[in-house]
Amino acid sequence: MQGEAVQVAARKVWIARLLVAVVIFINLQAAVQYLLNPNAYSGAFELEGIPGMAAVMGVGILYVMWQVPYVFAAINPIAHRLSLTEAVLMQAIGLLGETWLRSRIPAEHTILRNSILRYIFFDAGGLVLLIIAWFLVKGNVIAQKKAED
């Protein structure tokens, strides 16, 4: 019976890793696209030329930078539960910030508003995956703490 519980717990940890890895993959895919072909995306932000290229590439660099806690969470969501919590909080801040940002942009900027709406959907989906991962490992963390006491 106890062996079965250990297997279930291990399965939950692997599912959590997979969910975090999916979010990392999607974020890094966007980062690579922004870094390698920034001019394809600058129009969506109503930017052009060198300033547009620099702004889009800067966002790509930020995407890469932001993945640090996600990577630690994916490697070991139990040992790095704080990193998983940070990833959840970062994703939530992104979602709330983008929603607020979009509300501040006048309706006549349709392309820009739609671009930000894609970020909102993207971050909402990532947040759902990260929250599921967080809850999957929550029980394991509690059990581990009890065993240490």
Characteristics:
149 residues, mainly alpha, 0% strand, elongated
Task: Describe the model.
The protein is built from six helices and no strands. The longest helix has 39 residues, at 110-148. By secondary structure, the protein is mainly alpha-helical. The radius of gyration is 18 Å and the shape is elongated. The model has no long low-confidence stretch (mean pLDDT 91).
Short description, anyone?
This protein is an all-alpha fold and 149 residues long.
Overall structural class, as computed from helix and strand content, comes to mainly alpha
Shape: elongated
- Name the helix and strand elements from N-terminus to C-terminus, one letter apiece: HHHHHH
> pLDDT average, as an integer?
91
Q: Major sheet: size, sense and barrel closure? A: none
Helix-strand blueprint:
Layout: H1 2-36, H2 39-42, H3 49-66, H4 68-75, H5 81-103, H6 110-148
Helix pairs in contact: 1-3, 1-4, 1-6, 4-5, 5-6
